[in-house]
Amino acid sequence: MNPSTSIEQSRQDGVFLSGWRLPRQANVSLKRLHGYWLSRCPSGMALPRRRDIDPADFPAPLQNILLLNVHDGEPWFTHRVAGAKLSWLQRRPMTGQPLGAGLPESQRLSAVARAREVALAQEPRYRSGDLGWCGRDYLNFEELLLPLAGPDGSTAMILGILMVLDPHGREC
């Protein structure tokens, strides 16, 4: 799929799913990381690789960043890096943990399904909503997951960002 092609889907339960173009109302930190990711895609390749990404260049707060390893079997994804904000949400360190560890089973399965969508489709995914799934329904979030290619061109890692927002849309 061409990066200039929008494959935005309809709004479902307060969550937007999108492809190469983010919704207009997306948080500026997500937009900056998305732009950075697009700019790192080598000529002739569909996706940037992990080696094309340098955290020192990130235009987004590192405490909100995650990096998932993609595996061929269970657990499908593990947190290679999980920023402090993610550990705060989960009330435990997430680095090294399987994706969805500590969440109720329905939430864990949903997180794994979203990451599998990103890995298989090799397209970004955006969503937003409230943080009721981690006991903080008085706060909102926006999340962006971005695939990174491995040596064979398949998705080897997923770069992500999760911004926590107060009811007025300010970052917390």
UniProtKB/TrEMBL annotation:
Q: Which domain of life is it from?
A: Bacteria
InterPro entries according to UniProt:
DUF1457 (IPR009922)
A Pfam family reported for this protein in Swiss-Prot or TrEMBL: PAS_5
Q: In its UniProt entry, what is this protein called?
A: PAS domain-containing protein
Q: Which organism is it from?
A: Skermanella cutis
